[in-house]
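Q: Structure tokens for this one, please.
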Amino acid sequence: MNKGVLMNSESKHSTAAVIDSAGEKSDIKGLLAAAIQAGASDLHINVGLPPVMRINTELVTMESEPLSAEKVKNIVLEMTSEEKFKVFERKRDYDFSTALDDGSRFRVNAHYQKNSIAISFRLIPNQIPDITQLHLPKIVSELAVMPRGLVLVTGHTGSGKSTTLAAMIGLINSTSSKRIITLEDPVEYAFENIRSMIEQREIGSDCLNFASGLKHVLRQDPEVILVGEMRDLETTGATITAAETGHLVLSTLHTINAAQTVERIIDIYPAQQQNQIRAMLANTLQAVVSQTLFKRVDKPGMVPAVEILLCNSAVRNCIRENRIYEIPNVISTSRKIGMQEMDTSIAEIYFNGFVDKDEAINRSTHPQKMEKLLVPENRVSFLKNIQSLN
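A: Here is the predicted structure, written as tokens:
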């Protein structure tokens, strides 16, 4: 972990100055402002340690004094209330959001570790991302304007799922007159109505939980529903039901590829209900977008590698007949209609000069095959083939 050192040499001097000044401040707003100016995506607070930022996947320690238990406790109290702090003490985990005076917003998780409070902040960009600027496959934009069905964006924590979903909602909002209702824990990107009418409901304050919100959302005349996470059986069932009733439903799962996503949904149900859920999922699932982020080597920032599953008749039969193991093969043979394997996406961003070769190989599904592919003489033919299929 680097201490006060940034990967971007151009901003090293100015960022170091911000970190130094933040260390003299006792309020959390100063630390969060410093993290924003340093280009951090996350800020982590632990008792007995200086604050730590994450900048383009690297952990960077702020040049600040270690934080005391009392100071960390006061940070949580400052952002919530005594009543909510009591709930946090009882549950030992608490998710919420906070904002600075300039409008900068953060997703926050307060939790306990070694019987002391720790806090993780994730910066939520103020500007709704333009889907054309995210280096996503073009098919993702088409998924955003589908009339109905379930579209899932999946990946590990920090893989850009929220950003992709926000870009999809932003595209709908700027191009269509729709009524959109989101259920989030907490609300992340704040939308303004452009052509669509958007309601954003926060779990815990606007509705009790995802399942409760989904139960009532069908009476609120939505055309598009965003469910922050399908985290349990009740929420999963209600999400699929909403998609069955003719709505476009967008949601997320912490799965790393399309086949695992389908298995996770089915396995959450008791064995005696799994045949039924296979049939329901085969009828409602429209696509799975599985993504992961790579650190760019050509300039500061991140770039996604993306697997795309589109539910054509072959995929629906695989789901219905419990032949999930065949889904990767369907993806690999269906590039012409917009499907894409994760390793193909990784190879594409490597050959475009965005990512490091060793990282591309190590994070691929089949490292040995990837190593043989990623040689200079393959670059032109690979990219030409990709272009011909797009």
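A few notes: The mean pLDDT is 91. The chain is about 40% helix and 25% strand.
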